[in-house]
Write a structure and sequence with these properties.
Four copies of one chain form a homotetramer. The longest helix of chain A has 21 residues, at 341-361. Chain A has helices spanning 17-30, 44-47, 69-80, 85-99, 128-145, 172-180, 189-199, 216-225, 238-251, 268-273, 276-293, 341-361, 386-405, 407-413; strands at 7-12, 58-63, 102-104, 150-155, 204-206, 229-231, 255-265, 301-307, 314-324, 330-340. By secondary structure, chain A is of the alpha/beta class. Chain A has two domains: 2-234 and 343-404, Rossmann fold; 238-341, Dihydrodipicolinate Reductase, domain 2 (2-Layer Sandwich). Chain A is 43% helix and 16% strand. The first copy, chain A, has a six-stranded parallel beta sheet, sandwiched between helices. In chain A, strands 8-7-9-10 form a four-stranded mixed beta sheet. At the A-B interface, α1, α9, β10, α12 and α13 of A face α1, α9, β10, α12 and α13 of B.
Chain lengths: 415, 415, 415, 415
């Protein structure tokens, strides 16, 4: 029964807010202090899929800062609420266990913004091939020590700066060639992590806007090693709303003249994004969705992210949508979103691990296209309409429920 | 070529704001002053359907107030903008032509609220069978005078008060029996209009929250006379947003604790709705959608409509959505919608006439379920998710595009 | 030194949210867990006044519900945050001490709404003169037991229903006559509490919209017994904003066409206000301020208060202000206020006690007009402009700072 | 009777939106199409002052673009409403008359942003002393041709780029020395305009954020030539609200943690401000007010201005104010302002001309400090609280009403 499988979850950026909330959340679930609200996999439609139970997840990960999960959780609770004293008390043993599974991270080519929160990592100094090997050893060691049935790697590290992939990254051969040649100026940490994960046969989830496994060469790695992957940049707030709302304007043939989005946030991610090169990469994903969702695009759009320390993890976003309708009437919609970013993201991490382990178990490889609804810039999927992306996931669940009931047919249908 | 068909549009409440904007809008289209922005049927997906051109529509209708379309349009422009002097100048001849096609309306059992805007109609005093006959004569006379290829009836009259249908309205036989027996206390005007339309073989669109053709007996009339119908209560603003946004909360398993909607508007509809029995009927439709869209419903919801004269036709709605996510975090989304109600509704009237005429021409009868995306409380459709309703309409278009290309196959496929 | 005076604070509605926050807040101040943010008397301008220190306040009061301050505080913390575990731990002894000073309340003629939260009080059954005597005994007993230098009574009980004072309440003689005659249908609890307080020589603060000491007869009592009083209905959120913002529209000669205010809240006050007769009284105060602040009044205004349980103490208010300017341009301002009602009110309770004790010590009697800036419907003050009301308070402070420095001159200036 | 005085109004940036609305507005007033709503001087408190009637104003001005007031007005009406066809028809003769009084402007050192809307002016090429002389000739010629009783110069030109005054601008002598030496790199157009106006004995109003008459040397010019002046940067929207609201937080000792302001606008000013150096100057004034109004300043504040073409003149601003209160409770207020910038500014231009002419007539010179309530960064006034600034103006009116009634006493009171 998959419910009893021991699934390892290896978090890159393991002491960040999202990681902390994910681990503390699993402990709170175990203790019966919270329910699975916010987890997509808890919806009726997915309950009959044979997914691994989050209560049995074992956590570990890489972290570039000198940090400790118990302290992170306490600080988070003090600044943002949500992690209440009851939850903190219940989660303490689990957070300590996970802290014991931390390994030092990598910060190579992450960008200036990261320097605001983390020092240069020792591992950065190794030649590239050794870096990848050392990361793989961390995974293997964790896997064997905890006798894990599978291990899923999730990138939750702060957004790297804007990155232009060299032409050679389009093919696995040349990609590996540059890596072997230690062309260190070309490889950001997220790409090295993804390489190590997939070469280790671990499913990989790129929760961030960093390049990670987005390159064609890395997709090829995924296929070669039989470990599925997915990304990029989970949508949890303002962009989620955009992809839910823009289709309404399109379906009613209302012409969006301007869509201005202004995001305020005050957590560590916000601090890193306050650095221009990091912000640029992030904004690109947030803004691009509109071009695809609005017929003829949007005449004018802009996204801003501003660092407002007092808000902590409570992302507050104002969007102003100016549109015209019949008879040239000019109207507007505006909304304000006020959400705890990490509490929105953490359950999706658990969902993605469950889906990734399930796909891996079923022999899937390459991009998990059915998970597009989780991402701002889903790999290999053109559709940005959140509702149609949701239908894609429901179709997948529908298909796999059927297959589960008829294992033979399921086998036959597999490539 | 259907593009050249002369389609008559018979508007009940013919001098209201929506009617006025629809007629003036068609004239502005003819004059090239505006484009089809706001018309769903102008989207790429529907362009290849063989729909009648709105520029060839011929307008007439019933109106209970002593009113004139030119004056209405001028007043609308003064109060709300949108109908600019250029549009008014271009629309004047068309508005005058339509004014010549007006016939006195019916106000029987419409409720106290209507008394704020219209006197008791003379026709109310006739026995019920004579009322229906006189309405049918109006339609027949209009049809023949203008040599129309088809005639679609659209109910745009102010919302009637809350109505509880007697048991006998479940069956056509007993319904017609009560009508013949002149049980006048049981029949609101909208039901009599719908009866007259369908018995005349005219497709009928119930754009309002009034009962109209919503009764099983009237649906039977539609089937018997081969004229399709659809309703109820077009969604143009706050409810449209609700049905576009609530599925997002459901798909992410976020728990909506409270959804408060506060609508402000200042037009004639607002004045009628300021009367409690009218408001009740309207609010029911606006609130019900949430029950269906949120898993386990919404813990607490409320809709208010307040009359604010200075806003005129510019509906301004504030919705506050309180929800909880993972770890019990309580978050909120709020939005403000500021839209010209009639400029949002008018193009949908034109869309519905086009779809109704098309369906009639293809021999459809009974409820046009594929038009659910236009309505707050669609007849015979459980689905309230706007995006899935949109898919239903796209599927219909897809199917009929194919059929149009292979007319023989299309014939064969018809029941 | 007044800083060391032992001032008793007798709270009517002693276990409500505001009381709970005030008492817990004083304990948190004592423990150094919080500072005086939110207390007006902590502003530079008032620091040199010789005000009593809140850290030395001794709390007691009347409460109509069977309730306990520790439990109330814990529940408040769970539902609303703010009272964090640290604060609760520090406040526990003080809350227990205050709980020991509770006496059963009175609910006579409080209205149906109160029945939702409290049973009929035993004391209601006594003849009126005995009720007043028993209340006075409670005050005297508290005062002597704790060896208090002074005792200030503050009404924090839930809003009573709308009340029309009989003509006889205009004069102290006839007022006392009706009381002696036990005309119990005429006396709401708040009036009896105020009578008992003032006859006991205790300054009285009417923090609520209930009649309390607002009657001319009761003002006469204040003068006769040398105990100053003040009221009515503290402004802490939406109305505060109204009185801060409306003067701006007036000063710029902008014409407010409509001002719609929509308040959502979910605490016990909200539950009581959900009863129509209670809401009416409350709304009157909230709406009246606009009439005085806008030249020629406001064409159209409305205030709504809706009970939204999930919000608890977090009042969320949306105001929409439609206005016109030069050239007839129609514009709007809207705001959303999201504040913890009791955390906003509690420090004002402490301020008012400090000011009332100070005034009493200086021999003031009758209405404390200089405190108008604290109230929605200040007794005997026409000015509703918050900024000018603030100037009145600053002038008072200025005058008394001077006097303090020259006590002889101060004496000479007193009537 | 001053009501019949012919007052000339010389507008710098004479074909901009504010100028156009001011001139068209005066014509609409003359025609009885609008009333004086939006004009401060129309308030009861100022009616008894002996102010010149705006209906008798004669308009002329400098304009750097090749432009025509009739066309500007028509374009404004098309894009923004407000200038309706009726108003345009009534205003046409007046706009034509004013167009005849236009003279080519100056663009020296205005910054790159201005290049987006205007070419390099011919006059820029003259030596500085000749520029000033030529501007003075324009004023003199206008004055004599129209037999004006007085002439007020108002700077309404687009915001110049950030400007650092050289030390020598602190003294008139050295300022005039640099001007005579043709040190053209040091003098922005606005300073030259102000110099020409004051040397001509014309009162000068700096409605913009440009340096204009803000320099000590220019203030000395004002005193020497007996022409009063005032500035800087009229507050019409978001900053007005800030200076009306921030005092409320201060008066209640609420601690503002963050105040984020996001302004969207789409007119020519917005286009110029889209250039960084121009935006910087503007933002400084908008942000500085908070530092003065909040005790201990504001922990974090930011102002953004973004160019959104579809909005035209309809400035839309969202402000988010995060604050903490008693017990450390963190709360927020947010507002959205949606106003027609030029319709808000135009009546203030008329007010300032009236006040300036009145002051000139009474012999005032130097800064008109009583007009601080009109400006974001008032010359020589520390007070930013809008309500106290308003009191300053009321005090001035009070004083001068009295004097008007007793002319002898008034004379005696003059320096």
């Amino acid at each position: 029964m998959s419910n009893e499988r021991r699934v390892g979850v290896w978090l890159i950026g393991a002491c960040g807010s999202v990681s902390t909330c994910a681990i503390a959340g699993v402990e709170a679930l175990r203790a019966g202090l919270i329910d699975r609200t916010g987890m997509v996999t808890d919806l009726e439609d997915f309950r009959s899929l044979d997914l691994a139970a989050p209560e049995n997840f074992v956590f570990g990960g890489h972290e570039a800062r000198p940090a400790d999960l118990v302290k992170e959780a306490e600080e988070f609770g003090r600044a943002n609420g949500v992690l209440t004293p009851e939850i903190l008390a219940a989660a303490r043993p689990g957070l300590e266990r996970a802290s014991a599974n931390l390994r030092p991270g990598l910060t190579l080519n992450c960008g200036d913004g990261l320097r605001r929160v983390a020092p240069v990592a020792d591992r950065d100094r190794l030649p590239l091939p050794e870096i990848v090997e050392s990361l793989k050893r961390d995974l293997a060691e964790f896997r064997s020590r905890h006798a894990l049935d599978d291990l899923v790697v999730v990138n939750l590290a702060s957004a790297e700066r804007e990155f232009a992939a060299p032409r050679e990254f389009a093919y696995l051969e040349s990609f590996l060639g540059l890596l072997a040649a230690d062309r260190r100026e070309l490889f950001p940490a997220s790409v090295l992590y993804a390489t190590a994960a997939l070469e280790s046969g671990c499913p990989y989830v790129n929760f961030t806007s960093s390049p990670g496994s987005s390159l064609p060469a890395v997709d090829e790695l995924s296929r070669r090693h039989g470990a599925p992957h997915v990304g990029r940049d989970a949508k949890t707030g303002e962009t989620l709303l955009k992809t839910a709302l823009a289709p309404m304007f399109a379906a009613r043939n209302l012409r969006v003249l301007s869509w201005e989005g202004h995001n305020l946030l005050g957590n560590r991610d916000g601090l890193v994004l306050d650095s221009p090169a990091h912000k640029e990469a992030k904004l690109r994903d947030k803004d691009a969705v509109l071009r695809d969702l609005l017929p003829g695009g949007c005449v004018h759009s802009r996204v801003r992210i501003d660092y407002v320390p007092s808000l902590g993890d409570w992302k507050t976003a104002w969007d102003f949508i100016h549109f015209s309708g019949f008879l040239g009437a000019r109207m507007h919609l505006q909304f304000t979103w006020h959400g705890c970013d990490s509490a929105l993201a953490a359950p999706l991490v658990l969902d993605l691990v469950r889906f990734a382990e399930f796909a891996h178990r079923r022999g899937e490889r390459g991009t998990m296209r059915h998970l597009a609804c989780f991402f701002k810039a889903p790999y290999a999927v053109e559709e940005h309409n959140f509702h149609l992306q949701t239908e894609m996931l429901l179709d997948y669940a529908q298909e796999h429920r059927t297959r589960s009931r008829h294992p033979a047919a399921a086998e036959a249908g597999r490539p």
